[in-house]
Amino acid sequence: MSWRDLFPVLNQIQQVSLDPNKNDRLLWKDGIDLDEFSCSGVWDSVRVREPEVDWMGLVWFSHCIPRHAFLMWLIFRRKLLTQDKILKWDFARRRNMNMMCCLLCYANVDSHTHLFFECKFSSDVWILVRDKVDMGDVDPKWNAIIDWLKRQMQSKLATDYVSRLLVAATSYFIWQERNARLLKNQTRPPDTIATAVLTTVRYKLLGMKFKDTDNVRRLLSKWEIHGGYAEDDGGR
Ligand SMILES: [Zn+2]
To answer: For residues 116 and 105, what is the distance between their CA atoms, to the nearest angstrom?
Structure first.
């Protein structure tokens, strides 16, 4: 009875009739639907739904590199702990902390806009890698790069897939270099970072099977990959 006082909703439950011939089952009621219980089903019914963002396909796409995708999501959400954000915290203001300059170029402030990719160091990296995905005329600016990618977002062409992969890898290695300088006092020049980006993307491509099309042949020869075609039509 005390349960019914605490949770009046229990009064609405109709009288329970147990069937001893049936096994117990765990179910989840979502509105009027009664479904088999699953963690994913429960999460889907209790989560807060935000409107879908127009950049989702640039972050999460099939055969993305998950740790790169997660960093892209953090950048889109402006969630990286850059110095400009830290200095807005109360304790930083109270202690009158000084803005640390960007550790990649030593000439500007450490912020999302600067790191991706207006910083001299980051733009040098971008300029070294962008030709590999036919983005040679795209300026080293986040908005310019994202606008370009958005225009090809629905495309299933292998070349457009590799563009998304390359932008994510470039962002990832620049952020990694920034952290290595901050935490490990280790510095590498832009061409070493660019090589790391290209090697990572190339390894990813080596592990994939593509449809044998003109677009793919041109792409793979640009990345110096021989073969790599799917035998059936399951590839791109
Ligand atoms: Zn910089």
So the answer is: 13
